């Protein structure tokens, strides 16, 4: 995990930052409304003049003579020509409220970058792909079976279609172009989108079927294109399709530390080897509030992966002073030593925020200080993950090789051992976070190291 604080802020990577952007858009629109009012006043003034200044169409020479022969008409004509013409023209030429423009320029400096736009596109595409949703449903606010009061306008649909097309996912791109045609659009734009639909269908299909593709365009009903991809294990888990597990056990833990005799922890064992346990109700409301408050601002983008290009969420290290009690609770839950453990990291996921498959132990792709690190601390023995929030839809944590899926549950903590009994990295611990569909996903994580567990959880080297 690396943090990068030299780049401009990305909004798409966390709900917290997206809230900031929504605030900025409100300000922008306020200025725009001010400008529209200003413009309206101007139009009203000009309209008023154009009504007064326009005299009746007079057909004959005599009528025209009579018109200016009337002193009231003559006077008005002279006055308008003398006074109003220049006034109106000056009024038109006057720079429109530069103060408003300055303010809007200032806000423009905070507008999302190209990279941010791409993150947003990537998030939307992930939601579509991982959950295999119909673009027509997404565009109408029907997200994985739940209807929301939001719709995607045509430009949003076309931009997403273009993005997916450039990713060479022609089948899905075609679906999005078709969806874009369901809204009212200008004829020229419609033609452009129809062309893109046909090209996507041809690229994803066969040139012999062009007639069929053209016919699809005239079908008004939304016919979905058949899914051809075989879902990965992660996708199955995200879609809630893992087989039900029958070997789960649940118990109250009274024993790890003396404190638990007073306040036992309700613990569910999800897997034995590697060990994965879920502890319910171990983070208190005031801690949840504390975590959100102290991290609301100055979080940075979290970048993961050997080529450092997968931005998934915003992250911040939690101040140690605020975490003493949480540390104590980890000891109560696990009985493990926290010596040398990482500081607690807080993460808030963004639009379609996800974490692709990875392992938490130090493995092949770890960077150069690997050996030194392993010699001093040993490997990354266990991961402790607190769910700080529920997530309305999506955001499930899945272990694709074990077919275990864990829905975020506010206040619960998931603990798993990344190493097996011989303290060797266990690839079965590979895990991934499904894209968040709707919600603000907050978690706290801490990694415990191997060497200090010598007396609490000794390795059984074979
Ligand atoms: O956000 C999560 O649920 C998992 C985070 C994770 O896998 C990690 O920090 O290594
Ligand atoms: Fe992880």
TrEMBL record:
Question: Which SMART domains does this UniProt record tie to the protein?
Answer: P4Hc
Keyword set, alphabetical order: Dioxygenase, Endoplasmic reticulum, Glycoprotein, Iron, Metal-binding, Oxidoreductase, Vitamin C
Q: Which cofactor does it need?
A: L-ascorbate
Gene Ontology cellular component?
endoplasmic reticulum lumen
InterPro entries found in the cross-reference section: Oxoglu/Fe-dep_dioxygenase_dom, P4H_N, P4HA-like, Pro_4_hyd_alph, Pro_4_hyd_alph_FE2OG_OXY, TPR-like_helical_dom_sf
Q: State one molecular function term (GO).
A: iron ion binding
| Class in the EC hierarchy, top level | oxidoreductase
**Domain Fe2OG dioxygenase residues, every copy:** 340-450
Write out the annotated subcellular location: Endoplasmic reticulum lumen
Protein family per UniProt: Belongs to the P4HA family.
Tell me, what does this protein do in biology? Catalyzes the post-translational formation of 4-hydroxyproline in -Xaa-Pro-Gly- sequences in collagens and other proteins.
* UniProt name for this protein: procollagen-proline 4-dioxygenase
The organism encoding this protein is: Drosophila lebanonensis (Fruit fly)
């Amino acid at each position: 995990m690396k943090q990068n604080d030299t780049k401009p802020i990305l909004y798409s990577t966390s709900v917290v930052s997206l809230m900031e952007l929504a605030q900025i858009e409100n300000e922008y629109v306020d200025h725009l409304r001010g400008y529209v009012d200003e413009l309206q006043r101007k139009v009203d003034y000009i309209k008023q003049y154009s009504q007064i200044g326009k005299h009746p169409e007079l057909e004959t020479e005599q009528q025209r003579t009579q018109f200016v022969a009337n002193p009231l008409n003559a006077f008005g004509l002279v006055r308008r020509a003398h006074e109003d013409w220049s006034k109106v023209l000056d009024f038109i030429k006057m720079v429109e409220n530069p103060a408003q423009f300055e303010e809007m320029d200032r806000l423009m400096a905070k507008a999302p970058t190209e990279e941010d736009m791409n993150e947003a596109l990537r998030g939307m595409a992930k939601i579509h792909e991982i959950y295999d949703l119909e673009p027509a449903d997404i565009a109408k606010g029907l997200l994985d079976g739940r209807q929301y009061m939001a719709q995607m306008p045509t430009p949003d649909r076309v931009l997403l279609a273009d993005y997916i097309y450039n990713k060479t996912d022609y089948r899905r791109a075609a679906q999005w172009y078709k969806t874009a045609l369901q809204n009212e659009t200008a004829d020229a734009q419609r033609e452009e989108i129809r062309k893109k639909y046909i090209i996507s269908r041809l690229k994803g299909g066969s040139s012999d079927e062009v007639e069929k593709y053209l016919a699809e365009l005239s079908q008004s009903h939304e016919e979905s294109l058949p899914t051809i991809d075989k879902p990965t294990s992660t996708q199955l888990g995200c879609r809630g399709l893992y087989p039900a597990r029958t070997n789960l056990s649940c118990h109250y833990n009274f024993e790890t530390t003396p404190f638990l005799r007073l306040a036992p922890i309700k613990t569910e064992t999800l897997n034995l080897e590697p060990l994965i346990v879920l502890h319910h109700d171990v983070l208190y409301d005031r801690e949840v509030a504390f975590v959100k408050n102290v991290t609301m601002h100055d979080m940075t983008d979290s970048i993961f992966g050997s080529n450092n290009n997968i931005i998934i969420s915003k992250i911040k290290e939690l101040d140690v002073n605020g975490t003493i009690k949480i540390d104590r609770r980890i000891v109560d839950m696990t009985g493990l030593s926290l010596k040398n453990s990482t500081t607690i990291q807080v993460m808030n996921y963004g639009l379609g925020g996800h974490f692709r498959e990875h392992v938490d132990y130090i493995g092949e792709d770890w960077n150069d200080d690997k050996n030194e690190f392993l010699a001093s601390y040993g490997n990354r023995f266990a991961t402790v993950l607190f769910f700080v929030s529920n997530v309305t839809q999506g955001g499930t944590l899945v272990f694709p090789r074990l077919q275990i899926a864990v829905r975020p549950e506010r206040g619960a903590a998931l603990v798993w051992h990344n190493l097996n009994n011989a303290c060797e990295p266990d690839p079965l611990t590979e895990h991934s976070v499904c894209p968040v569909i709707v919600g603000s996903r907050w978690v706290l994580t801490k990694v415990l190291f191997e060497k200090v567990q010598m007396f609490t959880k000794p390795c059984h080297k074979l």
